[in-house]
Amino acid sequence: MSTADISISQDGIPLKQKLAKTTALQRRRALLLTMPLVLFLLVSFVVPIGQMLFNSVHNDKVSAVVPNFADAILQWDGVGLPPEETFEIFVKDMIQAKKVREVGRTVGNLATRVNYEMPGSRSLFTSTARKAKKIKEGPYKEALIKLNKKWGNPQIWLTLQRAARDITPAFYVAALDLKYAEDGSIERADELYQIYLNNFMKTLWLSALITFICILLAYPVAYLLSVLPLRQSNLLMIMVLLPFWTSLLVRTTAWIAILQTEGIINDMLVFLGFISDDGRIQMIYNQTGTIIAMVHILLPFMILPLYSVMKTIPPSYMRAALSMGAKPLYAYRKVYFPQTLPGLAAGTLLVFILAIGYYITPALVGGEDGLLISNLIAYHIQKSLNWSLGAALGTILLVVVLLLYWLYNKLIGIDKLRFG
Amino acid sequence: MNKLINKTLIATAISAAVAASSVQAGEITVVSWGGAYTKSQVEAYHKPWMAQTGNTVVSEDYSGGLAEIKAQVEAGNVTWNLVDVELSDAVRGCDEGILEVIDPSILPAGADGTPAADDFLPGTVHECAVGNIVWSTVFAYDGSKTQGVGGIADFFNLDKFPGKRGLRKGPKPNLEMALMADGVAPADVYEVLSTDAGIDRAFAKLDSIKDSVVWWEAGAQPPQLLADGEVVMTTAYNGRIFNAVAAEGKPFEINWDGQVWDLDLWVIPKGASNMEDTLDFIKFSTGTQALADQASWISYGPVRKSSAPLVSSYHNQPDLDMAPHMPTAPANFANALQNDFEFWADNQDQLNERFNAWLSK
């Protein structure tokens, strides 16, 4: 009896074991099929994001340009001015650095780095580098201060000491509208220079608003799509999908043509006499333009998940509820709406997360007050060339999105989402 | 089937090799600001140089700044040979090591025999850059619609001249112009701007017209804004306005009060290929004749003294004398300010930040 319990295959290995072996092999083969994607994600996603995280806290311009000085200044106790030996090392390092023309290793790079934290100090470094070779002997402290009296200001040395550390929170300090006070503590930046926190709040608020408008517009359309006979619903579906297949740039520029002050809507309103020719409405190159264009572009991402969920809800449920005496609104609220929630949740998440990182549409139609945080990130990557600050802002954006995702998961549950 | 694939592969490889080798010694890519300005360079520099040497110049447009140069140099994939930049960018790029050092001794003497060192205006030849023109930011308006404009103060006077204003999107040189409109003498502008109170004062002046401002970014925009009637007055690069008047017959007028002048210079991104031809192009294009020729296409002043006497009239209008339209003409230069590249190198990060914060409020 007992031997019959274990099935043995022909080559004498227990069947269970053999089966496990074959399925494991198959699973491994299947896993192999995913390797191209895993590799692709690793190269195009994980590595760049890792690099961004690294860049946001790492800036070695001081230790790379004046290495000996960087070591020396870190030993300083921060009281008064650094000792004479540190000055000597600094002068010698600067003379050496002046000869370097290698990208990322020049005095200009050092000057730019320090200037981020101490605006107006850039030329102090570049001009000192030009003249430093005239200082042939000590006392170096006096000679340097004679060259430029700004070197007698302890602030510049404290800033250099902070910047001499390769790993620095300085870019997060800047990205959060904070700054270093004279005693090295962190305080809020002057209100006139605050820009990022407000913009983060604005980005969140606009994304939420855009998502909400998308829900309002998409829900009835998705419902109509799901209940219309096939012929009509196909036609309607094409009208939803056609813009979806059109290039983003084409759609954005189309909105410019429609909404600008000399555009179609204003022309029509003037023609119909609703507004005077001087009173044309500014609908684009501001927040309104950003909202309108982004709602239009993101709408399909709300309609499609909603539609795919609504399509699976049997109409008999509603009929049953109505036949049992429920008022239409009550039946809708109790029977229909809860069943659409997975689609609604998926659409909301999709639209909101897409909106929060949107870049090209606000750049084209946002004017001055319709710009989102990604436009500021692009500004630091493309214009101001402060890549570390851009990386810090990008990292904060990433953390905010992850936090929201976590919150969303807590409230609704990611496993309940249905994208189709 | 395999053979067919092999043949296709070989054919592709060959055509790729041919394409690669077509970027040969005789071709350089010259990058500039586009529009009427690039056209003046094409006519005065590129065409004669190509005719003389048989080389090819590929012309590309950009809208200023060091970002693209930096990106190319850091990626080790430099496709530009020569770029036309503002002085502050030339200095900063040189400091940061992303530009090639240019030996000034290669520059030829002027046509009248003056050595290059004396022929170039002071400050126009830099460690990494060779100047070509003097240009200026001025303000302009449509003379057929607006009359009786006094000076820069009127640009900020919405009561006297109601309507929209065009300004370059950025703090430079709006802060300078705002201070001059507020009564600061050109010589004191940067001294005032280097104090917090001075910056506040400039922003307060800008604040007084902020709601009426249309911001522009590319040099070709301001003449268009004026032509479309989008703005009543706008700041602009003087050559663009001149060109709209001379070439398109637009009734625009330039007011030279409070002009802020600057230089454009040639720089070579570090690691650019074909240095030999690029340097030859620099020598040619900053020669006495080429600079004088360019001035017959656009009203930017040559940086060589020896070019000045050769500047005559607009290229196709012999009775349109160019001299009075130059930023440096004595009548235009009375209340002029030179852009202080060092001030901007020191303060642009901070002022950009404040400007952006101010703009989004």
Please, could you describe this protein's structure?
The complex is a heterodimer of chains A (420) and B (361). Chain A has three domains: 2-57, no CATH class; 61-165, no CATH class; 196-416, MetI-like fold, CATH 1.10.3720.10. Chain A has 20 helices and two strands. In chain A, strands 1-2 form a two-stranded antiparallel ribbon. Chain A is an all-alpha fold. Helix content of chain B is 40%, strand content 20%. In chain B, the strands form two sheets. In chain B, strands 1, 2, 3, 4, 5, 6, 7, 8, 9, 10 and 13 form an eleven-stranded mixed beta sheet that branches. Chains A and B meet through helix 6, helix 7 and helix 19 of A and helix 3, helix 4 and helix 14 of B.
In the CATH scheme, what's the topology name of the largest domain in chain A?
MetI-like fold
N- to C-terminal distance of chain A: 52 Å
Radius of gyration of chain A: 31 Å
Number of domains of chain A: 3
Q: Which two chains have the most extensive interface, and how many residues on each?
A: A-B, 38 and 32 residues
Q: What is the terminal separation of chain B in angstroms?
A: 66 Å
What is the overall silhouette of chain B? globular
Order of helices and strands of chain A: HHHHHHHHHHEEHHHHHHHHHH
- Mean pLDDT of chain A, to the nearest integer, reads 90
Rg of chain B over CA atoms, rounded to whole Å, is 22 Å
Compute the number of helices of chain B.
14
Q: Give the spatial strand order of the biggest sheet of chain A.
A: 1-2
Can you tell me the CATH class of the largest domain in chain A? Answer: Mainly Alpha
Output the structural class of chain A: mainly alpha
Number of strands of chain A: 2
Give descriptors for this structure:
heterodimer; A: 420 residues; mainly alpha; MetI-like fold; 3 domains; 20 helices; 2 strands; 1% strand; B: 361 residues; alpha/beta; D-Maltodextrin-Binding Protein, domain 2; 2 domains; 11-stranded mixed beta sheet; two-stranded antiparallel ribbon; 14 helices; globular
